[in-house]
Write a structure and sequence with these properties.
The chain is α/β, with parallel strands linked by helices. The chain is 38% helix and 23% strand. The chain has helices spanning 46-53, 76-82, 99-108, 114-120, 123-143, 158-170, 188-203, 215-221, 239-242, 246-253, and strands at residues 6-17, 20-31, 35-39, 61-66, 69-70, 84-86, 176-180, 207-211, 224-229, 232-237. The strands form two sheets. Strands 6-7-8-3-9-10 form a six-stranded mixed sheet, with helices on both faces. The structure holds adenosine-5'-triphosphate. Residues 17, 20, 22, 40, 42-48, 89, 266-267 line the site of adenosine-5'-triphosphate. It comes from Azospira oryzae.
Length: 267
């Protein structure tokens, strides 16, 4: 894995909320084709890092280089245009639109007509619209919910809503897919299917950055893992090393450390 080119390099990323130092100069490097895990206890700064990366927060310091050029994180659409897509810890779908429509919205970010053209349906946009629909159908099939295409998003099960969010993110054709707790609220069989899906996404050439509290899933799936604690990166290595690191065990379990590797229930 180490010989693969670097896709994302974050240097000294800092974010403060008043007196709270949510990120204290976090640096990390993600290589092309990796599944890279970002873990840490509640409040460690994981989502804040995602928000800085994807243009939702303006960092107080640091820089991010993506695919060889500085990433302008001043707005989410600029980040998306560079090829970074994300899902959210609290699912953010258009609840009153169908599954298919939700994916088509994601797809419009990548097309000439854009969302405006799609709404007003000029003749020139109709062929493109048909292509968008076909691709959205393919993506629903890809994530395993093709049979729910015409159901409203709000009527999908929790697990299927998470899959739909992934399909919508994939519709933007990202090089890096950032997943914020994709297994939250899933049962064991849904988590197993999610794992297969993420492995498939990587196999298809997309690099994955994963925040996840299900330690078993992270350790089984990720090539490398970084651990945040109180806004600092305390460890970054392959899973077998990370789960034995005393700093990680202490961060998760406090002084009365127990063996790592079991599922840690958080947030
Ligand atoms: N918008 C905000 N305003 C003020 N404080 C914030 C904001 N967002 C995050 N924080 C604080 O920053 C710190 C890091 O929070 P963050 O949500 O990034 O942690 P996390 O590792 O993602 O936690 P969790 O696993 O619970 O989601 C916390 O102390 C949190 O209260």
């Amino acid at each position: 894995m180490s010989e693969r080119p670097i896709l994302l390099e974050a240097s000294d990323v800092a974010k403060h909320f008043g007196g709270v130092k949510a990120l204290r100069g976090v640096s990390l490097t993600i290589r092309e084709g990796e599944i890279y895990g970002l873990i840490g206890p509640n409040g460690a700064g994981k989502t804040t890092f995602f928000n800085c990366l994807t243009g939702l927060y303006v960092p107080n310091g640091g820089r991010i280089v993506f695919a060889g050029a500085e990433l302008d994180t001043s707005a989410p659409h600029k980040v998306a245009a560079r090829g970074i897509a994300r899902t959210f810890q609290n699912i953010r779908l258009f609840a009153h639109m169908t599954a298919l429509e939700n994916v088509m919205v994601g797809r419009h970010q990548r097309t000439r007509a854009g969302v405006f053209g799609a709404i007003f349906r000029t003749p020139g946009t109709r062929a493109e619209e048909a292509a968008i629909q076909r691709r959205a159908e393919e993506l629903l099939h890809y994530v395993g919910i093709a049979d729910r295409a015409h159901d409203l998003a709000k009527h999908l099960s929790y697990g299927d809503q998470r899959r739909l969010e992934i399909a919508r993110a994939l519709a933007t054709e990202p090089r890096l897919l950032a997943l914020d707790e994709p297994a939250a609220g899933m049962n064991a069989s849904e988590t197993g299917e999610l794992r297969t899906l993420i492995e498939g996404i990587r196999k298809d050439g997309i690099t994955v950055l994963l925040i996840e509290h299900d330690v078993k899933l992270v350790m089984g799936l990720c090539d490398r893992v970084a651990v945040l604690d109180y806004g600092e990166k305390i460890c970054e290595d392959v899973p077998a090393v990370v789960q034995k690191d005393p700093r990680v065990i202490t961060a998760y379990l406090g002084a009365e450390a127990q063996p790592a590797g079991s599922e840690v229930a958080h947030g």
